[in-house]
Amino acid sequence: RHLAPFLCLADFEAAARRRLPRQIYGYYAGAAETCQSFQANAASFRSYELVPRVLADVSARSARTTLFGTTYDAPFGIAPMGLSGLATFEGELVLARAATQAGIPAIVSATSLMPLERVATQGGARWFQAYLPGEDARIEAMVDRVEAAGYDTFVLTADVPVPANRENNVRTGFSIPLQPSLRLLWDGLSRPHWLGATWLATFLRHGVPHFENMDAFRGPPILSRHVVRAIGARDQLSWRHLELIRRRWPGRLILKGVLSAEDAVQAREHGADGVIVSNHGGRQLDGARPALAALPAIAEVAGPMRVMVDGGIRRGSDVLKALALGAHFVFVGRPFLFAAAARGQDGVRHAIRLLLAEIERDMALLGVTRIEALTRAHVERAPWAA
Ligand code: FNR
Question: Which PROSITE patterns does the entry mention (predicted)?
Fold first, then answer.
């Protein structure tokens, strides 16, 4: 019954906002500068219209999707999100468990507060997302750590050479490292549920949260100034490093944050097995195009690579549009974090169920029975957008 108010993914945000301290809600919900790219993500889905086919006998339909030899129960997964552990107690495990129960992948973030080895004990898909400095020795050590933990898919996020300009974080008083302040204290005290069930529970169980996955060893606590040094020189990362990872990493290698067809070709030539077309949820370069706009040209040059996409996907119809435009799979970020903040693991399970139900219903309404049957013929650019 506590899930009854949530009818679609968008419904979780208001509940999360009530539960979370302003600083943390602002960090999750926010984007860079003017939010042009963030808003363009949502607008890009509205700029395509579906072309339903009728009388197609859609009685036997399934949204199951095979990606890299694994069959998932839905064509979407949970995008990597840093600091998920501040949404709810052991948020990283909550997301991983909910995804595993639902038969979809969740990508563990480099800036999560739970060791990647611990998340791996949840079973399910084993996808790790790394932020790497342009330093060979540190890259090799990180690749080795991820492999030793049993992961099979390594996602390198490439659109964060420098931290983005997110002014709303400055305004609310959120920073990395977290700066203890009276404002933060007051905000915590005015959200007693979060303070007790998330922050205190975490502290009692694990102590001060650390960045656990930025390097081959445990990183610094989230309150420490050493965080900045631990991140290292990401602005020196180059295609040469992707090649280095390719030589050392035996599993699947995915490049995340690609928006140009030329870069997709480079990724392919440097040995990537896939790309995630993404503008990082509008959180990095403000003004960067939405993933959906970049998708068709990238799908065309991808060759054997799998093409995935994220950013602004909120409805089953959005998922179908992305798949029809050439994506093999999609990822969804913020709504699952809000669901975790609002109702914990049950909330995330419910959010996954809602999105899957929308996809299955829309497949019937569109006249398709299998995900692979979606083609360019199922979408048209809206006349006003063309
Ligand atoms: C992110 N994202 C992200 N991406 C990444 O590669 N590593 C990370 O650690 C993070 N951290 C992160 C934190 C938070 C709070 C958010 C909202 C996002 C980006 C994420 O993987 C994804 O690209 C976008 O969130 C997708 O957009 P939507 O679905 O949130 O609109």
Answer: FMN_HYDROXY_ACID_DH_1, FMN_HYDROXY_ACID_DH_2
Indicate if ligand 1 lies below 6 Å from the C-beta of 311.
yes
Ligand 1 near 343 CB (within 6 A): no
Q: Give the whole-angstrom CA distance, residue 128 versus residue 274.
A: 14
Query: What is the distance in angstroms between the CA of the first residue and the CA of the last residue of the chain?
Result: 44
Distance CA 150, CA 155 (A): 14
* Phi, psi of 107, rounded to the nearest 5 degrees: -95, 125
- Which of 210, 241, 280, 328 is the catalytic position? 280
C-alpha of residue 198 to centroid of ligand 1, in Å: 21
* 116, β-bridge pairs: none
Lookup: tokens for 299: 């799908």
**Strand pairing report for 153-157 and 127-130:** parallel
pTM greater than 0.90 (yes/no): yes
User: How do 379-381 and 48-50 pair as beta strands?
Assistant: antiparallel
Q: pLDDT by residue (tens digit) across 180-226?
A: 888 888 988 999 999 999 999 999 999 999 999 988 888 888 888 87
